[in-house]
Specification:
By secondary structure, the protein is an all-alpha fold. Helix content is 52%, strand content 2%. The chain contains nine helices and two strands. A two-stranded antiparallel sheet has the order 1-2. Helix 2 runs antiparallel to helix 3. The longest helix is centred in the C-terminal third of the chain and has 18 residues. It is globular. 14% of the residues are buried.
Length: 198
Amino acid sequence: MINAMLDGYPSDFEGYLIRTDFRIGIQISQCLRDDEYEEHERVAIALKLLYGCGIPDDIEQAMRGLGWFLAAGDPKEPDPKMKPIEEADSDDEEDDAIFDFDVDSGRIISAFRRFYNIDLTHAKMHWFEFLGLMGDLGECAFSKIVGYRNMNLSDIPQTQRQTYAELKKKYSLRKQEYTEEEQERINAFLAELQGNTT
């Protein structure tokens, strides 16, 4: 466990220099969820992002460092937004995702400005500090939407369940799947738009 108040934030893992900027943490998180790559490619890219050119020769040590980094240095607290790497390519990957750095970037930027007066588009910040601040955000658009995504509908009174089910669906990170009929209507509408613009 790291006490940043006494020791500051770390710049290495077991003697290996790491890249600590919060943008690197975001890129690693995005990389590990990117289904365009095979699992071994995602891990290789994540390790390269974290260690730069100095990846430990011992792959177990390198992977320990990656997990440690994603968990902000607390081995008992894996990052709740990240699934274990070995599960990253499973079919239900998005079931546990409560936010996405791409989808929610505007909301996260807005929340940091509102609560901390930090402009994330220009800020320099350690990943560990960023995660700590994210975990302490008060009520805002981002926290509300994360709440909808994470909501267990069986805990909601029957009279409100439909409303919250619609909100959960609206803000879901799952890719929208349309019925054949819906897709035909979408295609017809797009064709009409293209016809009107020419």
